[in-house]
Amino acid sequence: MPELKRSDLGNKANELGALDSGVDIEGINESRMPTGRIEPLEVNVERVEDGLSLVPSKQSGAFSRALGEIEEGPIDLMLAQLSEEPDELGLVRKNVNGVIVEAREDRLAEIGRRGPREMLVWYRSHPEYMQAMAGDRILVRKDVLELEDACRQCHGRGYLEDSVCIHCDGTQSLRVSDDSTVPCGECQALGYDREKWWATGHQLCTACRATGWRAGIVIPEVAERKPITGIVVSVGPECKLYKLGDRVIHSRFAGHDMNVAKNETFVMMREHEVLSILRQLHA
Predict the structure, then answer these.
(1) What is the distance between the alpha carbons of residues 14 and 23, in angstroms, rounded to a whole number?
(2) Count of beta carbons in the 10 Å neighbourhood of residue 60
(3) What is the pLDDT of residues 204-213, one digit of tens each?
(4) Do 280 and 264 fall within a single domain?
(5) Domain count of the chain?
(6) Are the C-beta atoms of residues 138 and 235 closer than 8 Å to each other?
(7) Does some domain include residue 31?
(8) CA dihedral 154, 155, 158, 159 (to 10 degrees)
(9) What is the pLDDT of residue 177?
């Protein structure tokens, strides 16, 4: 099975082309911000023969997850980027943003300089995180261009934005046991710019039967040809064409989509992937 080339990453059209050619990849060009807190793993240290063994003090959910998967977190990535080989001579140890790293003194001085970081534009795209684009990338908050096929009452969303689902109380999920939940089935909508039904946490639009399409009639082949619009909410320091607040049109396959907890979708793309800028005429 062929592998996805590094040059194909970050653009949905390239990744879809790689998939069509037989590359085995999942979740093409989509991501989701991590939410919630990590459950601590409590262990006891026991001596086994000539070594030590970590034995969980209780069979917690964190322990079960640790057995089944290995994940790299932000701290692991930072250590991988900042740390040098531990047996190299001339290394110094320093606390960098709460992480203890070992590296050459000139490298640590370089990391400590924040000049270029002050040029970043931070945007709160998630209740727990802020984002800033690097290089010539822009962050676009996706919306729906009101065309003849979009529902006028809900503006293509499939749900009423100023209402809350009475079944899940806006949480988008229903609890089935003490430690598990399922997506709410009473507030699922499609949306004019989406391909799958999802729990919105809002009351559904009756005019389009929660589809986001006018009269509830979904035409998939039409949706594939429609461009997507959005508002630029963050720009990288190398961007030359766009500013905050610009409404732009881009291809459905441009950039990298990211869904967040506020029922919003953001697209991270390079500025040359934008098709055009929209400017509203005032009478």
Answers:
(1) 11
(2) 14
(3) 999 999 998 8
(4) yes
(5) 4
(6) yes
(7) yes
(8) -40
(9) 84
